[in-house]
Design goal:
By secondary structure, the protein is α+β, with helices and mostly antiparallel strands. Helices cover 20% and strands 38% of the residues. The radius of gyration is 26 Å and the shape is globular.
Length: 252
């Protein structure tokens, strides 16, 4: 009888272990499906303040952002937490979000607030996620607050001449010192098919540093003196064309 009881106990333990393994696999698959590729924003605007973490992800209005392990209470623009990102050995990727419910021509405003030490570089990027060739990145600051937080924002339009099935918005830095991100937002502005009723003419300015501006002035004065403008490749100087959407390097 004792031998029989031990046999029953062993069979019971094996069944229990098998059930636990199957249940764990099912749960892992469900979580993977929820947290990974086929996420839909469903709302025209989503802002993640990095206050809530579920597993390895941030959660905001039932929308998941990766990078939950970067949550930090060392600095915060809103609430009590932000995302702390750095890598002493190279590029460090911070929180990001993938979504699929968009159409060709959709226009999005993407923004994030950043706080950093010294001149640490922080970049906001939007790219296709499945090997498709689309990328847009910016590190231009559009607004600064007295408490040290700076706003990086840009507008992107889903290409109409490429088959894009999934987009990812994310942040990264190559700083060896901590960079803090907060209030990561995505807002759908409309679609080019809606017409141009919401079109706003952007103010554009040309940025040239003092040294290069002096070079341009000297070249102008020389042209006025001799009566003709003669240029060489070495006469070109670096400049930037800035708008409230982006900053584009160029030569003038």
């Amino acid at each position: 009888m004792i031998i029989s009881d031990q046999s029953k106990k062993q069979n019971f333990n094996k069944k229990t272990l098998a059930f636990a393994i199957i249940a764990s696999l099912v749960l892992a698959i469900v979580l993977w499906q929820v947290l990974s590729q086929n996420q839909k924003l469903e709302k025209d605007q989503v802002v993640c303040d990095f206050e809530k973490v579920k597993g390895k992800n941030f959660v905001s209005n039932k929308v998941y952002f990766s990078g939950g392990e970067s949550q930090s209470s060392e600095a915060a623009r809103s609430g009590q937490y932000s995302a702390k990102v750095f890598n002493p050995e190279g590029i460090a990727y911070g929180p990001g979000i993938k979504w699929t419910d968009f159409s060709a021509g959709d226009l999005y405003k993407v923004s994030v607030w950043v706080k950093r030490m010294e001149q640490a570089k922080a970049t906001l990027a939007i790219s296709s996620s499945k090997g498709e060739t689309y990328y847009h990145g910016t590190n231009r600051i559009s607004k600064r607050e007295d408490n040290g937080w700076e706003l990086i924002e840009t507008q992107v339009q889903v290409p109409v001449n490429k088959e894009i099935t999934e987009l990812t918005a994310y942040v990264f830095t190559d700083s060896k010192k901590p960079v803090y991100f907060d209030d990561f937002g995505i807002q759908k502005m409309g679609n080019f098919k809606d017409g141009f009723s919401n079109f706003v003419l952007q103010e554009i300015d040309l940025e040239v540093n003092k040294k290069n501006w002096a070079k341009i002035q000297n070249k102008r004065n020389e042209a006025l003196r001799v009566g003709i403008l003669e240029t060489e490749d070495k006469d070109w100087v670096k400049a930037k064309m800035n708008s409230n959407l982006d900053s584009i390097p160029l030569a003038v």
